[in-house]
């Protein structure tokens, strides 16, 4: 369920104003959030790969209201069912993918209200990748290789990734991975 323009006055008239404490948000994300770099094959891209930085916070369906509160708190992102095709998954997720929002809102916030667990290391790497992307690094083979190297050290060293790092290859004459 994607909410368009969630911070507009029209959408807030029927809801009570929620003021989340920034340290609560930081702690909540420390427990329920993730910083992820999605990497897809996309022939339309100059390097044949698309890099999508994503900030997620998940919650069971019965507590999804707090995810909508995060939409209002950060004034960006959207809420959706986490795995619509899996009837046993009853979680919902707050998602921010827009790089401008990630840079100006999410990264700025967590630079000030720092995470306290191992997730802080993932955030630091995530912020480094987003900064590299803002400089255009993802548009070159060399820059993409650096981004992939960093991304595969995040979130448990990439152990939850569907694609092995060695599967990320460029055109036959180009290399993207050091194996």
List keywords for this structure.
alpha+beta; Endonuclease I-creI; single chain; disordered C terminus
The name of the CATH architecture is: Roll
- Please estimate the helix content: 25-40%
Strand coverage percent: 15-25%
Q: What summary fits the major beta sheet?
A: 4 strands, antiparallel
Work out the radius of gyration.
17 Å
The first-level CATH class name:
Alpha Beta
Number of helices: 7
Structural class by helix and strand composition: alpha+beta
Averaged pLDDT, please?
83
For the record, what is the CATH homologous superfamily label? Answer: Homing endonucleases
Multimeric state:
single chain
Query: Kindly, what is the distance between the CA atoms of the first and last residues, rounded to a whole number of angstroms?
Result: 41 Å
Going across the biggest sheet, name each strand in turn. Answer: 1-2-4-3
Low-confidence runs of at least 5 consecutive residues: 1-16, 170-179
Topology, please?
Elements: H1 9-12, H2 22-32, E1 33-41, E2 49-60, H3 65-74, E3 78-81, E4 91-96, H4 99-112, H5 119-134, H6 141-151, H7 154-157
Antiparallel strand pairs: 1-2, 2-4, 3-4
């Amino acid at each position: 369920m994607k909410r368009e323009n969630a911070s507009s006055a029209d959408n807030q008239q029927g809801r009570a104003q929620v003021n989340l404490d920034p340290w609560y948000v930081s702690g909540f994300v420390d427990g329920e959030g993730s910083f992820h770099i999605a990497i897809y094959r996309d022939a339309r891209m100059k390097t044949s790969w698309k890099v999508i930085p994503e900030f997620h916070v998940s919650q069971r369906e019965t507590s999804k209201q707090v995810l909508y509160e995060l939409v209002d708190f950060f004034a960006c992102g959207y809420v959706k069912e986490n795995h619509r095709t899996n009837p046993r998954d009853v979680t919902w997720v707050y998602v921010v993918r827009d790089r401008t929002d990630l840079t100006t809102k999410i990264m700025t916030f967590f630079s000030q209200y720092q995470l306290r667990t191992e997730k802080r290391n993932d955030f630091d790497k995530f912020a480094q990748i987003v900064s590299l992307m803002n400089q255009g690094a993802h548009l070159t083979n060399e820059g993409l290789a650096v981004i992939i190297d960093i991304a595969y050290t995040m979130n448990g060293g990439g152990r939850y990734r569907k694609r092995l790092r060695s599967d990320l290859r460029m055109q036959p004459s180009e290399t993207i991975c050091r194996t």
